[in-house]
């Protein structure tokens, strides 16, 4: 198993260019190759669950020289959600993207994005993290503007400008870290910092990284691009962006760098907690007033990322290791759950748009009569995101609230519960306007979406339910991942 | 084609004559930079950029028609993908012989051309990719820019 | 030490350009200034006074430790090359988007390109 780690990057990247060549001769080949590729990646990711910690030195160089790929439980969680969501999104895109021209280019960009995200998650050194982050970001900028309509281009440009600033800040931070420690390998830097003590310039790096990765993960003061960019992309890409990209580039990087490399302290914990709580509250309040389905979902992404950040913040603040592990595990579990239900919701929104031609809630209604599968999937995912037991969203929110209580942060716990209620309210609105209610006369001819889209939706709905019911079985894995995160990175070379 | 109509698109006769000499030399220099990237400053990216600059010079001095006849855009986009693919393939070949991007070729005598194993091959792959990619970007942007400029003229009328 | 601060000043100038200018092309220039400031900072990290280029020549190959002590740090240069390549990709995408935006809106002014409200 150890030998196969580089394939997570090499296979999608090679396929991206290979399908572009073959599609010049035959249009259908890109569908087939992309689907085979993402299925293989999903299979690899599932196989990694039992693998334990692994390391891989690219080119056979000795540590700390060379490029290192590192796999631990956190990486496995992220690889799972990236590749499984990518598989389902591709399955969905097979039918959905028929309406767009240049399908091979879409697949090539999608594969590049997957390669970039896998690379970010696997990278054991800061510079490769930056390079893969840029690959994933560049592909996502292009994908947001894929429809080349005026609004999509504008959203893409906005996203590109803010993303470009974020990338430069991250690079500047990496440069300062290198100037201070003389190394780019994360484990090496962690060792250096623990033996040589604190340096004042590292605080500047904290600020740069928090701004850079905060922009990538759309925490609230830096969230302006997300509600424009995510709805503008084609539905499978919206699902990938909201479900995976902001986690892999933002939350994962923050967790890995601050918890693993620098080591957290109380100041960082408070910053994360405040960022998280602010994102939660502002995101959900802005979502309430939206009538465009995808825009509402995009605002909810900000809010739900706030939950994850709050979980990490508790993990950094809490005194006892058990509470810290519970908080981080809650945050990670919420990241997994968010990947399932937000992907499902965005794909449902895409399905509704595919069949009815509109995303405006006020023009919809009574869809459960015409589109039973899509409506059921929407309801399941809505209940899940609102935190109704036994769906998965409930357990992760419960874990975060319990951790907040045990860390004696009662006000934040109350805010978390309150935000959960507002989320429920917002999704009741979505249900009332789209799924239930009167069927509008102009919607009489609406039909259910094609089979491959239905399969993706059903699988995601089952995942929502399965993760909720199977929660006791994965709790141990999550707590292991969380407590592994708090220790310094220990690499077994 | 008469002598007169040959001069209609592109720049003056002097620039055309000089640039058709220079194009070959610039391209040759680009190949040198790319092939000796492991011994001297330079490498695949720098070499590829220089070769692309030769084609761009040809486009500016003569016309897009001439440079696209020498380097059609469909070939450019194919070569672009081929270069990237061969770079990944090089990594995968190393993967089969031990580690991803392992230098699996016999390393020759130091300070000669064949002294770096796969690095020379990687430089060539990157050179192809950058050369084709940059030229394709230039042609693409100039076609788009033309459309926009013509649209603006139409608006003014 | 002053050069490092000057790099940060240049970074700030880029951000100022991004915020204050309303023209898309100037915003692109702002991003490019930010990228170059970062690259310049990276190059300065590897700088060594009276250093030599980190390339081994046949005369040097017998005395590697002296060479290593004399030469500048090659790693930041490799990083700068990578980030220049990435910057080139970003720049091309930005220019292409700007051309497409101009095609749709017939202007480069960002106050007129505002059908979306973040």
Compact summary:
The complex is a heterotrimer of chains A (493), B (157) and C (118). Chain A has 493 residues and is mainly alpha-helical.
Molecular structure report:
The complex is a heterotrimer of chains A (493), B (157) and C (118). With 493 residues, chain A is mainly α. Chain A contains 19 helices and two strands. Chain A has a two-stranded antiparallel sheet with strand order 1-2. In chain A, helix 1 runs antiparallel to helix 2 (29-47), helix 5 (126-144) runs antiparallel to helix 10 (235-262) and helix 6 packs antiparallel against helix 8. Chain C has 118 residues and is mainly alpha-helical. Chain C has one domain (2-105): Helix Hairpins. Chain C has four helices and no strands. The model of chain C has no long low-confidence stretch (mean pLDDT 88). The chains are: A mainly alpha (493), B mainly alpha (157), C mainly alpha (118).
Helix content of chain B: over 70%
Stretches with pLDDT under 50, minimum 5 residues of chain A: none
Largest sheet of chain B: none
List the uncertain runs of chain B: 1-7
Gross geometry of chain B: elongated
Along the chain, the helix and strand elements of chain B come as HHHHHH
- Overall, the morphology of chain A is globular
The pLDDT mean of chain B sits at: 84
User: Portion of residues in helices of chain A?
Assistant: over 70%
Determine the strand fraction of chain A and express it as a percent band: under 5%
Task: Describe the protein's topology.
The complex is a heterotrimer of chains A (493), B (157) and C (118).
Chain A: H1 7-23, H2 29-47, E1 54-57, E2 68-71, H3 73-96, H4 103-122, H5 126-144, H6 150-181, H7 186-196, H8 200-217, H9 226-232, H10 235-262, H11 266-288, H12 293-317, H13 321-356, H14 367-370, H15 372-386, H16 392-406, H17 410-435, H18 451-469, H19 471-486
Antiparallel strand pairs in A: 1-2
Helix pairs in contact in A: 1-2, 1-4, 2-3, 2-4, 3-4, 3-10, 3-13, 3-18, 4-5, 4-10, 5-6, 5-10, 6-8, 6-9, 7-10, 8-10, 9-10, 9-12, 10-12, 10-13, 11-12, 11-17, 12-13, 12-16, 12-17, 13-15, 13-16, 13-18, 13-19, 15-17, 15-18, 16-17, 16-18
Chain B: H1 3-6, H2 13-35, H3 44-61, H4 64-70, H5 73-96, H6 118-156
Chain C: H1 2-20, H2 24-45, H3 64-70, H4 74-105
Helix pairs in contact in C: 1-2, 2-4
